[in-house]
Amino acid sequence: MEFRLYNAPPNESGYLFRLAYEVRVGGKLVIDRSYLGIDLLNIEPLLGEKDGLIGTRTADGPGYHSLVAEYMQDGSLGDRIDIEVRVYDDGVAFRYMLPRSTPLVDLNISNEATEFRFAAGKEALGALGEQSAQSPPFIAELPGGQTVAVLEVRAPDFPAMSLARLDAGALVTRLARKKNDSEVAYSGHTPFVGPWRVILFGKDRARLLDAAWLKDLRP
Fold first, then answer.
1. CA dist., res. 93 & res. 90, Å (int)
2. Which of 210, 166, 206, 199 is nearest to 30 (CA)?
3. Looking at the chain, which terminus has fewer C-beta neighbours within 10 angstroms, N or C?
4. How many degrees, rounded to 5, is the angle at CA 48 between CA 43 and CA 53?
């Protein structure tokens, strides 16, 4: 299992380099270039765009290898965003962490823009049928008999995500807005630790969501 995190060129709708990732299973690309990002209310660019790497930390845990990649937006006084990744034998988990920084103390998250682009393209998204969005888990059969599941491990007080169809081959996370504020999904302060976004792989669909390590993921 391999998780690659990097700064990627803009997609067709963007104009700035943006954090992205890929996942390979047994050397085969399964999750193609998928962009990462958090949309902060009335703040541009997207948190995850125009970021430079300022440090990394690696470690090993029970059954996984981990990486924390630290990024800063727009140079030495920019907003901070860290990505924590854990790679297991049968899946990966990652989450956003926002350290306290001078420009970003109060936190108003409008939405999240985490993508899951399947190398199998629309074959994988056929599991959605006619739906444009659904609550996780999303489970799909991939060519070669592999099954993939996308889900989350919730964080306290953070809104649940849904998975919306971005295009023919990709899903993107969406957050429910507050009942009393149509523009904000979450209000808080930094430092902030978000929920885990999880991708599981296996051949036994019935047991795919029973991975023991899911219980070890903590907010």
1. 10
2. 199
3. C
4. 125
Give the pLDDT of the chain (219 residues) as one tens digit per residue. 999 999 999 877 778 999 999 999 999 999 999 999 999 999 889 999 999 999 999 999 999 999 999 999 987 678 999 999 999 999 999 999 999 887 889 999 999 999 999 998 878 887 676 667 789 999 998 888 889 999 999 998 999 999 999 988 999 999 988 888 789 999 999 999 999 999 999 988 888 999 999 999 977
Residues 201 and 118: their CA atoms lie apart, in Å, by: 12
Smallest Cα–Cα separation from 198: which of 135, 137, 108? Answer: 137
Q: d(Cα 175, Cα 173) in Å, to the nearest integer?
A: 7
Tokens coding 48: 């995850």
Cα-based torsion angle of the residue sequence 197, 29, 69, 90 in order, rounded to the nearest 10 degrees: 50
| Bridge partners for 70 per DSSP | 55, 82
Distance between CA atoms of 15 and 46, rounded to whole angstroms?
11
CA distance 149 to 165: 15
Output phi, psi for 167, to 5 deg: -160, -160
- Tokens for 108, please give them: 């108003």
